[in-house]
Amino acid sequence: MKNLKYITLILVLIIGVVSCKDTSNKKAEVTYQCPMKCEGEKTYSEPGTCSVCKMDLQPISEQTSKIIATDEISDESIFNLTSTWNTEEGTTIQLKELKGKTLVMVMIYTSCKAACPRLVADMRNIEKEIPKNLLNDIDFVLISIDPETDTPEVLKAFAIENFMDDEQWTFLQGSVAGVREFANVLAVKYKQISPIDFSHSNIISVFNAEGELVHQQEGLEVDNKETIAKIIETTEKNE
Amino acid sequence: MKTILRLIIGVFLFFAIQANCQSQMVLIEGGTYIPLYGRDSLPVTINDFEMDVYPVTNEEYLQFVKKYPKWQRSNVKSLFADGNYLYAWKADTILADNQALKAPITNVSWFAANDYCECQGKRLPTVDEWEFVAMANEDLADARTLETYNEFILSWYEKPKTFNNEIGSTFKNYWGVYDLHGLVWEWTSDFNSVLITGESRKDVDTDSDLFCGSAAIGATDLMNYAAFMRYAIRGSSKAKYTMRNLGFRCVKDK
């Protein structure tokens, strides 16, 4: 019996070596898998025992871009990303939890003195133009490119200070790797140019309720009519 | 008892195979240098890290997609790779007849490369790390001011289809790393930190402190051109792009 324990332990260790390691400081969500892989790559979200060999399921660490087998989202959807994010309210979410609303997203950082205040103003101006009855179906999401500085507390303070603390506003702090990956999905470029400053693309992106990109507005203080029209059109389609 | 023995033998075999699968790496001793594009021409400090000696090969990538079917051509999400992903392959797990096992894998997106390295317990190199190692020729850690070094890179730009060549077919550099120049372009983890726009023009490094007095005349322009090409590719790439002359290799923190 002791031996069996021993073997199990060794096997678990090996599986640990083999399964994808989490090299970055991502907050991984835990999934479970039979250590013998009796059912191939099948994973479970709850601990338990393998239905084939009755061994205890072992936790495995997720990768950021692990694709969830689901037929509910298309190949183009940002809900394919499985990175985890902290909101300004201190909750932890995955992007797919934003499903069902039109998403208006922008990447900023709170200590930014140059472009971000204007980008934030652009977001507020867009929000102002949206008919009030549609606001329940829209989420304005601001994602920090400086996750080390922009903790949920900092983001919350920023939200209050900028009058963006209502339901329709969400601020997200990710992991360094998760933010890099997300920026790549939006085709946003950014670079840290000093300990406190970043240069970055000024892009506001609109996604439909399925997480598919429908519109991008590039630049600062550009004419946002088209963006507003697109948001309204997308949201009415969701109904 | 027999079962236990068998298991243990199996375990050993498994480890042996694992060890073989892990590609060779060498230690890169960190240092400080000024990249072509940086924070206002400020020196960048690189910590010690390990780097794959060779780019990832067709053979290694084939094993990877067998193990992780989500990266097979027919399963890959269009969010994570464009339509040219592995386009030359015969099928999901079969290379084309003219693709050598030991040639570098190309036509892979940043998402795929990123995931591959993560699954090896490694990561993609940053732009600064990659450029730091790529400054070397056979005997110098920083050969950027040598005309021969730059000529090699520029002559490669003129050669067609070097991506069909096998890994190790170029030179072994100062660190013991092969094929950084002369085979394929390579993905970097933060390639999207290259903002070649109006604002990064001021980052172009024409600082004369960079060049020692013995530098060949015109080395500046050559060097800037050879490196500028790499930055231009990074600046114009999107993460889902896949190109026939763009591969990758992994690194690991020390």
Identify the notable features of this structure and list them briefly.
heterodimer; A: about 240 residues; alpha+beta; 7-stranded mixed β-sheet; two-stranded antiparallel sheet; 5 helices; 11 strands; about 30% helix; about 20% strand; B: about 250 residues; 3-stranded antiparallel β-sheet; two-stranded antiparallel ribbon
Alpha-carbon Rg of chain A, integer: 21 Å
Helix-strand category of chain B? alpha+beta
**Content of β-strand of chain B:** 5-15%
**Beta-strand level of the residues of chain A, as a percent range?**
15-25%
Biggest beta-sheet profile of chain B: 3 strands, antiparallel
Query: Cα distance, first to last residue of chain A?
Result: 60 Å
Order of helices and strands of chain B: HEEEEHHHHEHHEE
Largest interface: A-B, 40 and 38 residues
**In angstroms, what is the radius of gyration of chain B?**
20 Å
Shape of chain B: globular
Give the overall average pLDDT of chain B.
83
User: What's the shape of chain A?
Assistant: globular
Q: Identify the strand order in the major beta sheet of chain B.
A: 1-4-7
Quaternary form: heterodimer
How many helical stretches of chain A?
5
Number of strands of chain A: 11
Give the integer mean of the pLDDT values of chain A.
Answer: 81
Uncertain spans of chain A, ≥5 residues at pLDDT below 50? 21-28, 62-70
Strand order of the largest sheet of chain A: 4-3-7-6-5-10-11
What share of the residues of chain B lie within helices? 25-40%
